[in-house]
Amino acid sequence: MRRADRSYSFQQKRMVLVSVSEKVKLLVAVLALQVCYAGFHIVSRTALNMGISKIVFPVYRNIIALALLAPFAYFLEKKDRPPLTLSFLFQLFLLALCGITANQGFYLLGLYYLSPTYASAIQNSVPAITFAMAAALGLEQINIKCRYGVAKVVGTIASIGGATVITLYKGPPLLDGKLLLVSSANTILNWTLGCVYILGNCIAWSGWMVLQVPVLKKYPARLSVTTITCFFGLIQFLIIAAFAEKDIERWKVHSGGELLTILYAGLVASGISFSLQIWCIDRGGPLFVAVFQPVQTVVVAIMATAILGDELYLGGIIGSILIVLGLYFVLWGKSEEKAAQVVEEKDLRRHLLDRETSYKEIGAVSGIP
Q1: Beta carbons within 10 angstroms of residue 321's beta carbon
Q2: What is the pTM (predicted TM-score) of this model?
């Protein structure tokens, strides 16, 4: 008995250690994901400062992303991929217009006029905007009689309010770029216009996530959907470039720095980050990943202040705090809603089992099989 107890105790300790190890891996992975995305904000702004075209940059980024995604999509989902139809391809084309072309285009325009710090801060409103869109389309239920319903509504209002504060109120500077590590400081060309473009980026991003729900129900091969969407987005950018970027010199990579920014955007932001995000969502769930979104904003603020010489403004800080508070209200509401649904399902299952048992007892007493 003592040996059995010792063996059982050892197995318990081993399971605890494995569980802790998995949690540490997940935590490291999700933090690495946020650092990768934070680096993308800095790299993108650096590319714009170097003079890279706002159209050429996403073209090269999506070419690299497509080259990375296509082989995995083809081989990993070869057996699970349903046949494509013309109507479904048209839906994917529209999805690309929203999630790739408008999303990336608005982001680069906003980043050009604003700064990485506030671009990242405003993007924290994406979960709230997504909830508002889904509720408007009937994909999300609003139940203000429950705590989680009130939390989601309050969080949405706070996030949108915070984004509005950043857009309309700049305020006095709180910290000048005194930790500058490069020769030229980052200048904000047009605060309000930059915020409007980043809000357009958030709306396009949210619309992309909402529209993916019915698309993935029809075509559950996620990698293939992403790859085809990326392909259509590339085609759309090339069509825009045919009219807006005719100068061949704008398509040339003039320095190693420009090449590095393009490679980072394609390999890290679209390759490594995408893989990390899938792994983290699979292990920890989408809510767990979303909770760490503000970490990205903090890292961006530190890097942008140190590397680009960004200034922090009062209006931006106030708006960012409101957005982050709104984000956590929405995420808490979603978490509570899921927990309530699980309880309801268990109660319903128990009720059905009780009814089945009572019917069997009645049948046994009455002699009915």
Answers
A1: 15
A2: 0.80
